[in-house]
Amino acid sequence: MSKNGGRTTLAELGLLFLRLGATAFGGPAAHLAMMEDEVVRRRRWLSEERFLDLLGATNLIPGPNSTEMAIHIGRERCGWPGLAVAGLAFILPAMLVTGALGWAYVRFGTVPAVGWLLYGVKPAVLGVVVQAIWGLAPRAARTTWLRILAAFAAVLAALGVNELAVLFGAGALALVRAGLANPESRGSSKFHQVLPVVPLLASAAGASTLTLSGLFWTFLKIGSVLFGSGYVLLAFLRADLVQRLGWLTEGQLIDAVAVGQITPGPVFTTATFIGYVLAGPGGALVATAGIFLPAFVFVALSGPLVPRLRASPLAAAFLDGVNVASLALMAVVTVELGHAALIDVPTVVLAVVSAALLVRFRLNATWLVLGGATVGFIVHAASGG
Predict the structure, then answer these.
(1) What is the pLDDT of residues 101-127, one digit of tens each?
(2) Which CA distances in Å does 219 have to 226, 250, 311?
(3) Domains in the chain: how many in total?
(4) Residue 88, helix vs strand vs coil
(5) Which structural domain, as residue segments, surrounds residue 65?
(6) Which among 182, 230, 241, 364 is least buried, having the fewest CB atoms inside 10 angstroms?
(7) Helix H or strand E segment including 215
(8) Nearest CA to 315 among 134, 199, 161, 193?
(9) pLDDT tens-digit profile of 51-84?
(10) How far is it, in rounded angstroms, from Cα 297 to Cα 83?
């Protein structure tokens, strides 16, 4: 097992993210928690501070956060080849599963009923996310000011304020405070040269006739401008594919979102399912490539800026604000996940046992996910489902 500063092979990197992509249920917060457990705690590939910096940078660019974090980690450990290997390995399992479900949907006209899987997995991943937040919080919220900022960000997120506004707002407040506290740093700082810029991309041309190229450009546009959660993805898909282009019905879109929720890995592989439903295997490939390609480009462009951000006093303050707001967003998502996951006594017991095993024995998160799926199946079978 490679330690921080040691050599990481592309095979190690690929195998890790293949496993994570195959077992990472629960949405981006759970995915990031599993990555933190593997690359910070177990393998020591990254320090907690470096992980937080990459997380902050990830939250400032459009696209699927957990996939972009995998790409960042791959670049950190194995350079440009690692960037491609980690990202593709994390995406591949979900792409294959959603592609298979797309085939079944076209063939049989319905999505397989696997609610039992989420029933057991969701409570298990709660413990993983809580442990990640607990471990990262002391470094991210290391001062009274940052703790106050985290609480403020959490309140705003809970009230429904846009995620990007919360992140940039926290970064801006931290930046202003640092500038007021250290006036001499304003002139010397290179912050204005390295502040991440949200790309402004033109919308893809909207042709109502379905073609593979049209499908690719539609999903490329979505992947290029989408910030936020899976609910934001739903809004984009509905606006483009149902209302503007008329390629999907409302019912098909709901089924596609359901598939994204019951499969592991990035929710953005909903695009794979939609692509298959619309245009078969070719459609699945071009839709997947379109929605994920911007993530690789944005990470490649923004990754080299992270050390420069940390080296600048004002930029470091901005990044600290973004980091602590990112953690606050994770906490709010965890509460929301808890409301959805803890629905009866068995799920509460499963969540408590999972958390206890994780804290006491540092059990690998993958085993918790598999154990939760097994419990879900047993309860489902016992109930005669």
Answers:
(1) 899 888 876 666 666 766 777 787 777
(2) 10, 18, 36
(3) 1
(4) helix
(5) 10-115+142-197+300-327
(6) 182
(7) helix 212-225
(8) 193
(9) 988 888 887 777 888 899 999 999 999 999 999 9
(10) 10
